[in-house]
Batch of 3 targets.
Target 1
Amino acid sequence: MGQPVVHFEIGCRNSQKTQEFFAGLFGWQMEAAGPATMISTGASEGIQGHISSLGHEPHNYVTIYVHVDDLQAYLTDAERLGGKTIVQPTEVPGMGSFAWLADPDGNIIGLWKNA
């Protein structure tokens, strides 16, 4: 089995303004979830995502999350292949864990592991 893309994240400086933009443009429904806002696209196909305002660089970004079975193993492989770890494995209570890596060109990709 491959590693599917399971989630997307839109980073921004102003979360409320960004939520209003995408809700108005695509009709997406927004629901606050701690520091993030979960997005329901209202579609039965594709993936869901969230909006996040980190309060620090990077402010504006779009990234995908790839489902993996071992975050650290993939971070280690990414570094071996010329990438770099951006965010160490971090738990999202009750849901799973994530990490961020950068490819050799600096593109940020999220990794996700279910709880």
Note: The radius of gyration is 14 Å.
Target 2
Amino acid sequence: MEQDVHDFRLPRGIKHWAAEERPREKFISHGRESLSDAELLAILLGHGYRSVSAVDLARQLLARYNQDLSKVASCSLQELKQIKGIGAAKALSILAALEIGRRRNSMVHKQLFFKTAKSIVQAYHHLFADLPHEEFRILLLTRSNRLIAEKRISIGGPNHTTADPQKILKEMILHQASSVVLMHNHPSGNLEPSEADRTITRRLAYLAKALGAEVLDHIIFTNESFYSFADRGERSLEAS
């Protein structure tokens, strides 16, 4: 008796796929570059759930965040655990792997020399992309503008964060930095510096000068653009 075509079901599990289509086997036989983001995530996930394969689950995860791994990396553990099929172990594996990637990028950036605000934005825009809150970070540089370290100073709310000048000066002394670049984001998308932004820039420029150092720039990030105090001629603001 012939099988009803409507009763026919293709197996969904990865173990039923052709060997060359399975992420692990594909990685081994064709190299890591041959895998899509979803396939790489599927290896971290290990397995899906019910009739949903690990690759399908990875695709669902990426679709949720507009195919942007940086957005996935900025998720909290609790946020990832809310996705069906992703428990604590899978969420931890994903976040740990993406954090390793972020740290590797930071090490690569330490080999860079920053000459313009645009070069800094290109290197660090991903740290601020799509954040729902403000964060204040600094870049500590040598006299020749080579990166020594990048540090997060504070995390605030959607419209404000507090940067402690003493904490920034401590980091400058600890790392023997000759200059510092201030960075923070405006989740609202408004590029215009607030009076508080200008005040902290003036105060830090004054305090850094007392150490024989300088504030090279203060850059405000939005998802679409950036504002550079140096480019606008405000780098050398004197303390009032």
Note: The longest helix spans residues 88-109.
Target 3
Amino acid sequence: MEDFLLYGEDSISSREFSQFQKLIFDIAGISLSEAKKVLLVGRLAKRLRALGLRSFGEYFQHLSQEAQAQERQTMVDLITTNETYFFREPQHFDFLREKAARCGRQGGFRVWSAASSSGEEAYSTAMVLADTLGLGQGSWEIVGTDISTKVLSAAHRGLYSLERTNGIPPALLKKYCLKGILDQQGMLLVARQLRERVQFMYCNLLQPQRVPGLFDVIFLRNVLIYFNQETKQKVIANLLPYLKRDGHLIIGHSESLHGISSALVAERPTIYRPAYRVQAGQP
């Protein structure tokens, strides 16, 4: 086969891009606008080369084969990998600490990081809960989920570059993280007692049947921005059965549930609780 190169959006036809838009939407609910064409090409071009395929049309046909479920997952991994960091939007972790101190002393406090990416959100949550509730058996637990198996594998390891840990408060960094030496120099490992409290698992938010139990807090931050209105409504409706009666759903500061769900009401900006609590006259 002759050598070939793929550059920019010109390497994918409008028809091919439309095919990928539909495929990615059907799998993950993500709506890719025309502005994302360069992103799609940039993230998938190396995969085409690795498979020895000449065009995105050939790759789409390859993905369409029934036996290529793993390749479809690989494509999702490449498209959906997003940047995150520890203690992103710190006001949310202040609220988490308040709620845990108020409600978590009875035991069984549970948090779902519903788009956990490479794990920084889940481990930030673990540091807050360990610092607030301690490490007593059964006092709290965290479930971290994502549609990308690649980032879940990284999250499970809990190993990060020191450059990615600037947001961790110094006291928590010292208490719950280990600094690498020798061949691990420049790296940070989340302490084992925290890693053991976080269960990472695959979950497609369009079909979240595998997630166990009910949660006091569900983080769904910086996710809705990738969905159209109908998909946003479906995702929120899918998460509601997992939220405790006095639980809270937290979204990103660039997001809103206005027009998406009447079952939740804002208690604070980006922090929502079940609307029935207001209807029942509760504070």
Note: The chain has a mean pLDDT of 89.
